[in-house]
Amino acid sequence: MTNAKPNDGQFYALHLLRGIAAILVMLLHLHGYLTDEPNFVPSGHLAVDLFFLLSGFVIAYSYDEKLKSGMVFKQFAAVRLIRLFPLYALSLAIALLIVALTVAEKGWGVYSRLHLLTTFFFSSVFLPTPPPLSTFPDILFPWNGPAWSLFFELLINFAYGFVAVTLSGRALAATIVVAALLLVVAAFSFGTLEGGATWQTYPVGFPRVIFSFSLGVVIKRYWMRPTQLSVIGPWLLSVLCIAVLVFDPGDFLRPYYNLLVVILLWPLVVIMASRMSFAKGWRIVSQLSGDASYGIYVLHIPLLNLFVLITEWDSGAKWGGHGLRFAILSLGAAILISCWLSYVYDRPIRHRLMQIFPRRIGIAPAPTG
To answer: Which tens digit of pLDDT belongs to each residue from 224-252?
Structure first.
């Protein structure tokens, strides 16, 4: 390897990882809409742990020094909410459209009006809906299941904002060790680390986010090195990430495999990726991948539900009765729409919000991370 030009403050390999992982999560969830099609990404739930790890690295990189230099918690919290909320709010708007179309076709008997109101209220303030008040009692976020991980990410972000200035390496190490032990307990108790989205498995979300986010902070603070130009890096990262998530270890080996990936493999991948610099062509691809990743992740379930509703009207196909053609078309449409909305909706809204808030709480323009 040879020394590369500076990455302009961007970790392009991490952007690439985020985009690939977001698409694979959508493929995992797409399986529930199909008939007799194989699960394309049987280990896709592990992408969430990669997201938490990347979040810890990027947040520490972006805010460690700012918090030490006087940025207060309310400023940090506002920035994080502005980063996450616009696209999440759009996902709720799409969900409301689906509810309205369903009620228009089938009448109010489909939903309890009380449950609709309470689900909308809790979802709109980024809180899980209590089961007795929910339109789908099993799920923390009934109208956008993947939002559970955003909720846990906000919790760990706020915790970081409170303690970042005084958080020592020893405290981080102790936190990681305890969380790792809890991960082991969770993996063998549930047979997998695929937990957090439902009320039955939500406790698993705590060690998942605490371990990976904290380790991401450690990687940034103690293991980050100058980037170097990598020719095979983009291909290696892409193939490795896909291979990890499409591999099916089987029921017996699943807890071992999940722990191996979360505790050892993902950290090694992020360390390697954080030290890679890409050539110009791959920088463009990776930047687009990273920019669209959050939109793909937060919008894909509402968009897929909307596509299903439209398809049912057009062809009469029932829920879970769609084929490979639907999978390909909906996957492509969801990616394109999410990318487009990330640029024409999310960025302008966040920019506008960041113009409104600085005078009140003294925050700078929104970062891209």
So the answer is: 888 888 878 899 999 999 999 999 999 99
The reply to whether the predicted model has a pTM over 0.90 is yes
The predicted-structure confidence for 28-80, as pLDDT tens digits, reads as follows: 999 888 877 778 899 999 999 999 999 999 999 999 999 988 888 988 999 99
262 and 254 Cβ atoms separated by less than 8 Å = no
Would you list the domain boundaries of the chain?
Answer: 12-361
Phi and psi angles of residue 34, each rounded to the nearest 5 degrees, phi first = -105, 160
CA distance 202 to 119: 18
Q: Give the whole-angstrom CA distance, residue 57 versus residue 160.
A: 12
Quick one: pLDDT at residue 7? Answer: 55
**What sign does the CA torsion over 82, 214, 284, 225 have?**
positive
In Å, how far are 9, 15, 20, 96 from 285, measured between CA atoms? Answer: 16, 9, 11, 33
Six token digits for residue 178: 């305890």
DSSP assignment letter at 231: S
Question: Are the C-beta atoms of residues 257 and 30 closer than 8 Å to each other?
Answer: no
| Closest C-alpha among 300, 324, 250 to residue 36 | 324
